[in-house]
Amino acid sequence: MLDLLVQYIKTKLIYDAVNLLLYGGGLLAVLKVSLWFYSQRLYSFYWVYRHKNRFMNHPIFEKIEHLKNRNDVALSVLDHTKKVIVSELFYIEISKIHQVLKMSLKHLYRADFVSYLQSFGEFKSGKIARYFLDEYMNSMSARKRRARNEFTRLGMSEEHFERLWLLYSEILGDYGIHLTKRFESYETQTDVYRTLNTILNDFNILIEDMSESMGGKFNRLNGRSYGISYRGKAIGDHNNAE
Amino acid sequence: MPNKSNNLIQKTKLTPEVRYDSSSNNIRIVGESSPENALEFYRPVFEWSKRSLDVNNFVALEFDLRYFNTSTAKQIIALFDMLDTYYRKGCDVTVIWSCVSGDADMEEAGEELLEGVYFPYKIVR
User: Fold this and answer.
1) CA-to-CA distance for B53 and B40, rounded, in angstroms?
2) CA B102 to CA A73: how far, in whole Å?
3) Widest CA span of chain B, in angstroms?
4) What's the distance, CA B23 to chain centroid?
5) pLDDT tens across A130-186, in order?
6) Residues with Cβ < 8 Å from A162, sequence gap 6 or more?
7) DSSP element (H, E) containing A117
8) What is the pairing mode between strands A229-230 and A233-234?
9) 3-state DSSP helix/strand/coil percent for chain B, to nearest 5?
10) CB atoms within 10 A of CB A189
11) Which of B64, B67, B114 to mutate to test the interface with A (most CBs of A within 10 A)?
12) B77 contact residues in A (CB cutoff 8 A)
């Protein structure tokens, strides 16, 4: 008897729930919510394309050019060689960020509008944020190659360069962890337009942070021990020290 | 996966067209390059380059890319390293890096990739 009563209540509850969903406006509400989410994504998709120039000419690119031309990092040390090393690494870093951002934006916008439309399935904040982050992180080997070319040209030995790069990788790791944490938070963001803006702003903050703090992070670096020639002098020999 | 016939890899949304002309030992890579597996995608380019260099001591590569991702850059660097090894052995190597409609970013990217190589190259603006 009790079983029958439980069965009746269950059936009645399910019946009422379905009834409410179908005829009580529930279905309409579900449809409205789905449409709202979908239209937001569509609108964002259109808005990102419409403001292509705005992203391709984001202030970060101007800032990078400015920093490249200044060719200096905030580093008040008497060790000029150290300053040369850190400035060079910073220059390579911001050049790479510039390249990564431009290439990632080109990837996002594709070759033409039709290709862009076809990429709608990938148009998600999390996916885009991951693409930018992966591209930045994976550019390490290219940065290392460029740095090796530059420093060996300046007279640094391979052994010294490897030691310098080990230290530099640790420093970059600090910045990378911070950036990864921020980018992971975009996973649930529905407005891609806003996410894209934030991604570029994050890189803007990153280079600003680097320009201010990178020098300080190199406290373990003693320029004279890296065999770099500075202003024609062979640094490493204490008699030639600045 | 891109459609690959004998000496041609068809262009896809994320990969460039790669055409190998075995009679002139010319390899042409045109389009956008951000394949999911760049190592696998560029394997034929390595093979074709090696074949031309081993058999005819000559290869000419032409890049006409609109953009490429970092994993593509790694493969291009590895390819240039291989070409350099052959060039130092006495083979003839030519690389042409074309920048569509004066794209400064691609020009800079090309300069960076080609920096420090021994074989002759040309950046076409």
Assistant:
1) 21
2) 31
3) 38
4) 17
5) 999 999 999 998 899 999 998 988 888 898 899 899 999 999 998 999 899 999 999
6) none
7) helix A113-118
8) antiparallel
9) 40, 30, 30
10) 16
11) B67
12) 141-142, 145
Report the C-alpha gap between A238 and B9 in whole angstroms: 58
Best CA proximity match to B33, nearest among B9, B51, B52, B50: B9
Write the burial class of residue B64 (CB in 10 Å: 0-12 exposed, 13-18 middle, 19+ buried).
middle
Mutate: best of B103, B112, B118, partner A, most A CBs <10 A: B112
Q: Which of helix, strand or coil describes residue B61?
A: strand
Cα A226 from Cα A182, distance rounded (Å): 35
Nearest CB among B67, B109, B116 relative to A107 is that of B67
Nearest in space to A95 (alpha carbons), one of B52, B34, B117, B115: B115
In this predicted complex, what is the ipTM? 0.88
- Residue A90 tokens read as 């910073």
* CA distances for A28 relative to A16, A37, A137, angstroms: 16, 14, 45
3-class SS at B18?
Answer: strand
Structure confidence by residue, pLDDT tens digits, A97-145: 999 999 999 999 998 899 999 999 889 999 999 999 999 999 998 899 9
Residue of A98, A103, A149 with shortest CB distance to B69: A103
Q: Which of B17, B20, B121, B19 is nearest to B66 (CA)?
A: B17
Q: Which tens digit of pLDDT belongs to each residue from B49-85?
A: 999 999 999 999 999 999 999 999 999 999 999 999 9
Amino acid symbol at B73: A
Nearest CA in chain A to B67: A103
The structure tokens 């693409």 sit at A131
Query: How long is chain A?
Result: 242
Q: Which amino acid is at A95?
A: S
